[in-house]
Amino acid sequence: MPLFTDEGLEALLDRYPREDIGVYAMGDTPDTWRRGRLGNANPSDLISMVKEGRVWLNLRAANTKDNEVGDLAGSILSEMRAAMPSFRPIKPDLGLIISSPNARVFYHLDVARVMLFHVRGNKRIYVYPRTEEFVRAKDLEGVVTHETEEEIPYKPDFDAGAQIIDLQPGQMVSWAQNAPHKVENADDMNVSLSFEYMTPVAIARANAVYANAWLRKAFKYNANLEPKPTVLWPAKVALARVLKKLAPIDKDTPSVFPHCFTLNKSGPVFDSEKFAI
Ligand SMILES: [Fe+2]
């Protein structure tokens, strides 16, 4: 689609709300993930910076912020529904990701279900089993309750247990809800669509894990990863709803990834030396 050519992406960046463009930079190790803000770089500077530097741009909620992406998201979902009548995604949220050669997204998990549609470039994705060996229930609970961000403890020997997929344009990969994963771009610019969504079971699982976090703190309850629905889920879902009413998730708490650089025409400018990569 013309939308995904350099010119199409520049036009999209030009009309896209600037506050909804997530800006990140990284080195080779998980401690080098940095969140930034857009400075005086214009859309064509941004595309050149993606090609020449090591940045990762996420046009958040692009299905609701841009009509052209919204139409594309709608047609993806309706084709999927035609093939799978039981597929009823809730709160679909499409992030359009434009990322540099060799950019990476370190080991993490997402609360929602995810489908990654790959459009340009080449990337390798590692998907790990959703088992205690790869993510402890306590760490999953931290992500679901927003006490931590999506990063979870990682050891290099986890890779031996991963399913490794070399994604080429036109391919899509999806995985079990909350399964850990990481992404490594090959030596070319990448464009992908990260399509997050929930299902009734996915919402119930997230709420069961949310309740487990509270039960662990209050009663030292030793929860598991809630691999499949159990008879306890309705009670846990009800508990989670009450807890969220009593103490809504505070989205203003300082992030463990504060904004620490500005993406200017000249490239990333770090707020202080300690953030430099
Ligand atoms: Fe992810």
Automatic annotation (TrEMBL):
The name this protein carries in UniProt is: JmjC domain-containing protein
Which Gene3D superfamilies does this UniProt record tie to the protein?
Cupin
